[in-house]
Amino acid sequence: MEGGFNALAGSPHGYYKYLWWGYKTDTHNFDYFALGVKEQLIYICPRKQAVIVCFGKRWGKIDWWPKLLKQIADSPD
Predict the structure, then answer these.
(1) Of the candidates 59, 71, 61, 73, which has an alpha carbon nearest to the alpha carbon of residue 1?
(2) Staple partner for 13: which of 5, 24, 56, 57, CB 3.0–4.6 Å?
């Protein structure tokens, strides 16, 4: 998602609540993620029954992890 956090927080496609971000995937569904420091994150995709966890030690080259993780969760089974 272009613009990262600020675009998501002010967007009809997402929200932030209780330290979790909601990421609207279609009309009726949301994925959820929590972001830590140095690219540590948890991504949850209920419709695919998937949980993706990333452990990070330093900042890397990926600008917006949730977009990539949504693509991974949406990939064919």
Answers:
(1) 71
(2) 24
